[in-house]
Amino acid sequence: MKKIPFSPPKMDQAIVDEVVATLNSGWITTGPRTKALEKEVEKLAQVPRVLCVNSCTGGLELVMRWLGIQPGDEVIVPAFTYCATANVVLHCGATPIMVDVKSDDFTIDIEAVKNAITPKTKAIVPVDLGGMPIDYAELSSLVKSDKIKNQFQPRTDLQKQLNRIAIITDAAHSIGANYQGQPAAKQADVTVFSFHAVKNLTTAEGGAICLNLPDPFDANEIYTKLNTKTVHGQSKHALAKFGKNSWEYDVVEAGYKFNMPDVLAAIGLVEIKRYQADTLTKRKMIFDLYTQLLSKYDWAELPVYETAEKISSYHLYLLRIKNISIEQRNAIINRIFDAGVSVNVHYKPLPELTLYKSMGYESKNYPVSLDTFHRVITLPVFYDLEKEQLERVVEVIVEAVEHFL
Q1: Which CATH number fits domain 13-273: 3.40.50.9100, 3.40.50.300, 3.30.420.10, 3.40.640.10?
Q2: Could you report the per-residue pLDDT of 323-344, keeping only the tens digit for each?
Q3: For residues 329 and 375, what is the distance between their CA atoms, to the nearest angstrom?
Q4: How far apart are CA 218 and CA 230, in angstroms?
Q5: In this predicted model, what pLDDT tens digit does every residue of 344-388 receive, in sequence order?
Q6: Where are the alpha helices (DSSP H) in 110-254?
Q7: Is the pLDDT reported for residue 239 higher than 80?
Q8: To which CATH superfamily is domain 275-404 assigned?
Q9: Confidence of residue 241 (pLDDT cuts 50, 70, 90)
Q10: Torsion angle, CA of 168/174/178/179, rounded to 10 degrees?
């Protein structure tokens, strides 16, 4: 039987045609298609402005540097996430303060966040892991409470203007997710998406910064400043320099190279127009079918991906096997691969990684994250996954698990 992959991107003729049209247009770097994609993401996320960038990682770092995160500052992150969430904090010279996640939906534990806040805390970077929104109302109430605001010590004019801890969501998994009937991207001060190859909506590589800061912040002004930072602090981007007597430019700061090119935005333009009606609908069907087929097994701990308040983007189906060790989990995965099915593990907790272990972080301080890592298997979810293939995935997993139980 043909091997079942984990998460290949959807590539069809519509995407090929748009990319070819971009190549033939003579404009392949940041230009009209990138700006058009920004407008489409604005409509989907229902936020004032969006800036497309080279990656979610680049977007997170850009926002932190704009906000003035610096050495001596602390930024709270979940221990159960990909390393990029915390790496960008290190890039800014600040200290990642890790907290555990909830056992039901893998989102950041707000009570743990509350206990981790100090006068040095400048931002919280929650993660909508697997596409499931965090408890935004609870987190927002926390950072806006008098007790927490009274200990906030701003170090920059922008921090003084916000006058509280910033919420910057790592939404690499959650474009299209909903919270209390609205796009999840409307809930944080800034939300950053990923358009990496394995994400629900891809541009091969890329990301988008969704600006949603409160008054008196001006989204257009922030967009302009961040846009300048993405092109080495240059006062004009490439498209603006194209034309008679428009070559002249200035460099106003030592910026970065974080811009998204049109040739990649072209993929996203096709994908976003069919995202909610087609892509999310198909992924929900896959999630529902996995849940239906696996719910009959007592050893299967199924993920929560819909509640009265939250609806996932159906990015990762995180199956946990009850009462097994990491050695058993790894043996199960090997058997699944031997049967021709590709699965994955999301994630190694940050303290399990050599970088963070060497800095003194210890996994024992994040028991839910560690337990989840030991027992989780991420199942294949992709647009072209057929019902027969999915049934085969479940058949193989059941055989592998019950072989070792």
Answers
A1: 3.40.640.10
A2: 999 999 999 999 999 999 999 9
A3: 6
A4: 19
A5: 999 999 999 999 999 999 999 999 999 999 999 999 999 999 999
A6: 110-116, 136-144, 146-151, 157-162, 219-229
A7: no
A8: Aspartate Aminotransferase, domain 1 (3.90.1150.10)
A9: low
A10: -40
